[in-house]
Design goal:
By secondary structure, the protein is an alpha/beta fold. The protein is 45% helix and 15% strand. The radius of gyration is 26 Å and the shape is globular. The protein starts with 27 loop residues before the first helix and ends with a helix.
Length: 654
């Protein structure tokens, strides 16, 4: 079994002053060693004549240094005005494999991502996916023979060609690799392609991006690592595993705040650890929330109990608080807005960006344009739009410059203040209803969760009501199915199923001692695949694999919705049973994908094995199983509440 990430496996202790083994400097001697290794590799593949050795050195020395510079530092909300070396701040995270049976209980080191399989890392906001990908890139340079190409997908233009963008990233001066040679190299298992932030690609562009990534995974032998939030319509990546991050352990949380102390030369982390038992667990489980906790605790020595209160304290700490690296220093507000006015404009600005599906702002002038729109929305007038923006970058540093772009320190900050804008608007009910039923609802998914804390009745009245109503309609369409897990899963996701002969789709890698599946993403299905599950069995003593593919969530269901209409959380099957698939192939062709919809269910309702396989596959995901009766009750409660409110309004108007 692969060893989990620990202080030992990555060469880092929980004390300060110890560098990550993977972060050793990119020295000329290391690059010369890698260059010689590359020369040998090219000669073995008869490519040395196409790649002149002098040009090779002139190209790869600056390339590795350029990539290392790009990924070796980060900015944080704790210390927004300084670039921090990633080895000073990075806390090694555990990975959980969510693709294979029972593997979610295992934890893996980054080395797992360097094998011959590609990887999709799907996790919610705040786990530090980008920081982790930067760490992986540096480790690839220093500790492997792979050539990493790191791309933040949000930075690609509207008319992107992924293959060309990868080639340009590698060959920035366009002198070394032509397209034919680059394609040939990609076919030779030498490249690690890191694609960060698929969810940050606009909804309109995600299908085309997914197609190009899927095509790349089929046509090349490169190891691909893709990161995303779970709500995106993810691409199918051939021969891939799906991972998520484990929550931070208590020891990891303590280690991270001590790292912050060392950077800021403060004792905030030490004092926070003394009160760690009183901190709500949810604030210790993600690097983002922990860093925000550190920042607010450093300002007011208090610990919030709710997320909404927590972000409120973040704003207070940023507006009124001092720079942790410059004790007692408070920056002047050039916008001349007081505490409340600044917040109102910030809310409108966040809402405007989120409505436009903007994760990052491409230029200073574009930022001013959005601020001018926010001024009209909020009716708050700063000394100038540029002064307000400069305050956001410096005096109230919730944003920062990232290369040529500008972005919030974290997307959740923008999402929280957008939620506040909705919650405290005069037409909050109409606005929530319109957004939730619109094409931009997916952009507000996290904001809806914040709205549930800010205005729970509004959240129930609009969002939970709508989801419950749709689930009841879904139940009517799938009334033949008795299993609530299957019904809920088909409500939340698009699903496809197929069967394959094992020896035709599986290979064994002698070097890594791993079995690798080569089941291509189901292009014949009318949805993008976010993950696949595999069930092994036999037909007349020959081994076969039933594969169940699913999309991302096919509709917006904020996680806060689930507590109102959930029946139970499905249990994950840890030990799958052995199957005989004879009854399955009587109805389905080998190697063909079938979409599981209402028509498919009605045609195959008598196939008990099909439903048993679906149940086992779906139980592997541990989802909230919805309850029809709870949904009906919720709708009745909301209708009664609306009737009572209208009656009171009528009486008050008499």
């Amino acid at each position: 079994m692969t060893e989990p990430i620990t202080a030992t496996t990555v060469g880092v202790g929980y004390g300060i002053g110890q560098s990550l083994k993977a972060m050793k400097p990119v020295t000329d001697s290391l690059l010369e060693y890698k260059l010689n290794e590359l020369r040998t590799w090219l000669k073995e593949r008869h490519l040395n004549k196409q790649l002149d050795e002098d040009k090779l050195g002139k190209f790869f020395f600056p390339y590795y240094k350029r990539v290392f510079k790009k990924v070796s530092t980060i900015k944080t909300i704790v210390f927004p005005h300084i670039e921090i070396k990633i080895n000073d701040i990075f806390e090694p995270l555990f990975l959980e494999n969510k693709n294979q049976w029972g593997a979610s209980s295992e934890q893996y080191s980054p080395d797992k991502l360097f094998n011959t399989s590609s990887s999709i890392i799907i996790d919610d906001a705040g786990m530090g996916k980008t920081t982790y990908m930067k760490f992986i890139t540096v480790q690839a340079i220093t500790d492997t023979n792979l050539i990493p190409i790191f791309i933040e997908l949000r930075t690609l233009g509207e008319s992107f060609n992924l293959l060309e963008e990868l080639r340009k990233e590698l060959d920035s001066i366009n002198e070394f690799f032509d397209e034919a040679l680059f394609l040939k190299l990609l076919s030779l298992e030498k490249f690690l392609i890191i694609l960060d932030g698929f969810d940050e690609v606009s909804l309109e562009e995600q299908p085309e991006m997914a197609k190009q990534i899927s095509d790349l995974s089929i046509k090349s032998e490169a190891v691909i690592i893709l990161t995303s939030r779970p709500e995106a319509q993810l691409p199918g990546i051939s021969n891939s595993n799906t991972f998520k991050f484990s929550p931070l352990t208590l020891e990891q949380a303590k280690s991270l705040v001590i790292r912050y102390d060392a950077i800021g030369q403060t004792d905030v982390g030490v004092r926070l650890i003394e009160e760690i038992e009183s901190v709500p667990t949810k604030f210790l489980e993600t690097p983002l929330l922990l860093s925000l906790l550190y920042r607010t605790y450093g300002f007011n020595n208090s610990i919030a109990s709710k997320i909404s209160t927590f972000y409120d304290e973040v704003y207070i700490a940023m507006y009124k608080g001092h720079d942790l690296t410059k004790k007692g220093y408070v920056r002047e507000k050039k916008s001349l807005l007081d505490f409340e006015e600044f917040r109102k404009l910030l809310r409108a600005f966040s809402f405007t960006l989120l409505s436009s599906k903007k994760e990052n702002i491409k230029s200073y002038s574009e930022a001013i344009n959005y601020i001018e729109k926010a001024i009209k929305l909020s009716k708050v007038t700063p000394s100038s739009p540029s002064n307000f923006f400069n305050d956001l970058l410096s005096s109230v540093p919730l944003m920062y410059k990232d290369g040529l772009d500008y972005k919030f320190m974290h997307r959740t900050i923008m999402e929280f203040f957008a939620a506040e804008f909705i919650a405290y608007s005069d037409n909050a009910t109409e606005m929530t209803d319109k957004i939730f039923k619109s094409r931009i609802a997916n952009s507000f998914n996290k904001s809806f969760d914040y709205l549930e804390e800010l205005k729970p009745n509004l959240f129930k009245k609009i969002i939970v009501y709508e989801v419950a109503k749709k689930y009841i309609e879904h139940n009517e369409n799938y009334f033949d199915i008795q299993d609530d897990t299957i019904k809920t899963h088909l409500f939340k996701y698009d699903v496809g199923i197929s069967i394959w002969q094992r020896n035709e789709v599986e290979t064994f890698d002698i070097e890594t001692k791993q079995h690798n599946l080569h089941i291509n993403p189901p292009e014949s299905l009318p949805f993008s695949t976010s993950s696949m599950r595999y069930i092994y069995g036999n037909i007349r003593s020959e081994e076969y694999i039933v594969t169940v593919a699913q999309s991302g969530l096919k509709q917006v269901i904020p996680s806060s919705t689930e507590k109102y209409i959930t029946k139970y959380i499905s249990k994950e099957i840890m030990q799958p049973k052995a199957y005989e698939f004879d009854a399955f192939v009587e109805s389905f062709e080998i190697g063909k994908w079938y979409k599981i919809d209402n028509h498919f269910i009605k045609e195959n309702i008598s196939n008990k094995l099909l439903f048993e396989l679906m149940e086992e596959a779906f139980l592997g995901y541990m989802i909230s199983v919805f309850d029809k009766e709870k949904s009906i009750q919720l709708i009745k409660e909301v209708d009664d509440y609306i009737d009572d409110s209208e009656m009171i309004d009528t009486l008050l108007n008499i």
